[in-house]
Write a structure and sequence with these properties.
The longest helix is centred in the last third of the chain and has 15 residues. Strand 2, helix 3 and strand 3 form a beta-alpha-beta unit. Helix content is about 40%, strand content about 10%. The chain is α/β, with parallel strands linked by helices. It contains twelve helices and six strands. Helix 8 packs across helix 9 and helix 8 crosses helix 11.
Length: about 290
């Protein structure tokens, strides 16, 4: 089960932090990608200190997988904190055309100084940061119009610095994913695991799926019932594990002796949640 004992290559993270500090003076702005389903959990708590007051824009990626109303609440939440925020989706392309105009708004004073110095049209440089598997490489490939950054549906693929030109006037610096070395908050670890930011092979997949069932019955009970043909009674009269077993039974995932194939059920649940087959679901909301 994801807990505060999960660790994520602390040496790798320390190296990435050093690289960020080294390269920040070269860029005009930081594009910080978060997972729209878990904006708080997917934001490194040290990121504010790491960015050293550099102008930044938060991009809530994978918004097509998240609940729209919840995403709107997150955009307002960050606005109240004085941080510009856009909902985007690198798979569908939604919202990507808004990035450069907003970047120009954020950097309006710097652009005016460039204009006064006869440097109008100078290309802007942006550092792209975020946790593993949040979509940094997909964003870069979308904006550059070519597969220049390596993309895989697993965390931790980007390992080295890359400068990539785009057609929108931004040069992008792709950075390795930054995830904290130890999760003090168990819920953060669970959220990252459920959305795929942590490799499944280092976790108990069945236990994670039971946790996911418990979260879905709280935040998206109607979608859970509709997808797996559950009744309101099923939700109220069973615990999380029994509900997990019931879902496996309804899907017909049986093995010899009539037992449920728990691994197959778990992998199905996680895949269908991550692919929004259950529905568009956000696991956490901003606190009032």
């Amino acid at each position: 089960m994801p807990s505060q004992t999960i660790q994520w290559f602390p040496g790798h993270m320390a190296k990435t932090r050093r690289q960020m500090a080294e390269y920040l003076p070269e860029v005009d702005i930081v594009l910080e990608l978060l997972d729209a389903r878990i904006p708080l959990s997917s934001r490194n708590p040290d990121i504010k200190d790491m960015l050293q007051n550099k102008p930044s824009l938060i991009l809530l990626n994978k918004s097509s997988l998240a609940d729209q109303a919840s995403t709107a609440k997150w955009v307002k939440h960050f606005a109240k904190e004085g941080i510009m925020c856009l909902a985007i989706d690198c798979m569908t392309g939604d919202g990507l055309d808004r990035i450069f105009p907003v970047v120009c708004d954020i950097l309006a004073e710097k652009l005016e100084r460039y204009r006064q110095k006869g440097m109008a049209g100078r290309r802007l440089k942006a550092m792209v940061v975020g946790i593993p598997n949040v979509g940094k490489s997909s964003l870069i490939n979308r904006l550059s119009g070519a597969k220049k950054a390596k993309v895989e549906d697993r965390p931790g693929v980007t390992v080295a610095r890359q400068w990539i030109s785009t057609s929108i006037g931004l040069d992008l610096l792709d950075m390795p994913g930054v995830l904290w070395p130890r999760f003090e908050n168990q819920i953060v670890g669970q959220n990252l695991a459920m959305t795929g930011a942590i490799r499944d092979r280092i976790l108990d997949v069945e236990e994670l799926a039971v946790l996911l069932v418990g979260r879905l019955r709280e935040c998206a009970p109607a979608l859970l019932c509709e997808r797996y043909k559950l009744s309101e009674s099923d939700l109220t009269n069973t615990d999380d594990y029994d509900l997990f077993i019931l879902i496996g039974k309804k899907r017909g995932f049986l093995v010899r002796g009539g037992e449920i194939n728990e691994l197959r059920t778990a992998e199905m649940l996680l895949d269908e949640f991550r692919g929004a087959a259950i529905g568009r679901i956000t696991l956490e909301l901003p606190t009032e």
